[in-house]
C-alpha cells in the first residue's frame, strides 16, 4: 500500500471555520487485492473517502481531509488507515495552523462607565489578531437600555498585522418635565347637531320607557340605543386635558454586549454601564 503524501499541512484557518479539503491518494501497489478495514482522522480534522473494503491491484482511492480548528495556534492530528498491507496501520501526519481574533479594551481603558441620564458613555476598544489572523471584522452593540442607543465607530475594521482600535458609544436620554397637552374639544358647528340628535333620542326613549304598554324588548332596545349615542357624543366632543413627559433612561446598571463577526464566527465583549 502506498500513500501520495506522508504529511498534510493546512495554512492559517479561522477558529470555528472549515478549510478547503486536501486529498491523499491511497494505491494498491501489491499483487493481490488490498483489504481496508478502517480510515479515521483524529484531532481537529475530518475525512471522507471513496475507498472500498477491498481495493483491486493497481487501483487507487481518494481520502479528503478538512481542518476545523477549535483553538488558535498549531493543531496536530493523524489520519490512520487500517489495512491488510505490511506495517498496518499506516498514518499520515496532519498539521493545521489556526488563527483567531479577540475584542478587548485598549490598554489602561475601562470596560465600565458611569454617567448621568442625558450623557454619553464612550468605551475605547480594539480588535486584536491572534496567530496571524487577517481579515475584516464587523462590530455591533446590543443590550442598550430604554431611551438609549449603543453604536460602534467604525462598524467594520480590517485586520492586517496589528490590533485596530474602535469606539463604542452609548447615548442616554435625560428626563424632561411634564407639560400640559390639550385634547380636542368640541366646536359649535359640530356640537349643535349632536346635541339636538341626543335630545331627540332622549325624549323618544323617555316616552317609550314611560309607556308601560310598550313591549319590554322594545324598551330595552331603546334604552341601549340611547346609551350608545350618549357615549359616542361624549367621546366626540372631548373633555379635559392631560400631561406628558419623558422619563429619560432609567437609573440602573446594565450589561451591554459588543460583538465582532468575521466569516460567520463571532467573538463578544461585555461592557458595564451605570446610569445615575
Write structural notes for this entry.
By secondary structure, the protein is α+β, with helices and mostly antiparallel strands. The chain folds into three domains: 99 residues, Immunoglobulins (Immunoglobulin-like), CATH 2.60.40; 90 residues, Immunoglobulin-like; 61 residues. 16% of the residues lie in helices and 50% in strands. It has two helices and 19 strands. Strands 2, 4, 6, 8, 9, 11, 13 and 15 form an eight-stranded mixed sheet that branches. A five-stranded mixed sheet has the order 10-19-18-12-14, with no helix packed on it. Strands 1-3-7-5 form a four-stranded antiparallel sheet, with no helix packed on it. α1 packs antiparallel against α2. The radius of gyration is 38 Å and the shape is elongated. The mean pLDDT is 87.
Amino acid at each position: 500500500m502506498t500513500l501520495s503524501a506522508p504529511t498534510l499541512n493546512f495554512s492559517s484557518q479561522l477558529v470555528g471555520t472549515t478549510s478547503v479539503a486536501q486529498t491523499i491518494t491511497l494505491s494498491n501497489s501489491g499483487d493481490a487485492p488490498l483489504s481496508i478495514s478502517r480510515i479515521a482522522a483524529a484531532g481537529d480534522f475530518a475525512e471522507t473517502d471513496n475507498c472500498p473494503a477491498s481495493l483491486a491491484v493497481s487501483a487507487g482511492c481518494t481520502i479528503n481531509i478538512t481542518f476545523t480548528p477549535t483553538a488558535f495556534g498549531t493543531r496536530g492530528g493523524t489520519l490512520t488507515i487500517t489495512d491488510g498491507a505490511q506495517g498496518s496501520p499506516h498514518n499520515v501526519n496532519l498539521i493545521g495552523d489556526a488563527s483567531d481574533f479577540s475584542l478587548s479594551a485598549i490598554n489602561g481603558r475601562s470596560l465600565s462607565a458611569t454617567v448621568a441620564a442625558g450623557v454619553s458613555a464612550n468605551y475605547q476598544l480594539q480588535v486584536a489578531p491572534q496567530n496571524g489572523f487577517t481579515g475584516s471584522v464587523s462590530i455591533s452593540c446590543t443590550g442598550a437600555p430604554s431611551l438609549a442607543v449603543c453604536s460602534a465607530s467604525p462598524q467594520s475594521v480590517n485586520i492586517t498585522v496589528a490590533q485596530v482600535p474602535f469606539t463604542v458609544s452609548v447615548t442616554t436620554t435625560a428626563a424632561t418635565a411634564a407639560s400640559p397637552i390639550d385634547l380636542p374639544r368640541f366646536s359649535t358647528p359640530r356640537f349643535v347637531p349632536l346635541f339636538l340628535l341626543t335630545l331627540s333620542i332622549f325624549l323618544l326613549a323617555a316616552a317609550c320607557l314611560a309607556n308601560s304598554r310598550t313591549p319590554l324588548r322594545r324598551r330595552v332596545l331603546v334604552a341601549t340605543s340611547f346609551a350608545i349615542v350618549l357615549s359616542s357624543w361624549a367621546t366626540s366632543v372631548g373633555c379635559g386635558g392631560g400631561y406628558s413627559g419623558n422619563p429619560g433612561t432609567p437609573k440602573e446598571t446594565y450589561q451591554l454586549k459588543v460583538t465582532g463577526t468575521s466569516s460567520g464566527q463571532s467573538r463578544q465583549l461585555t461592557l458595564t454601564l451605570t446610569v445615575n
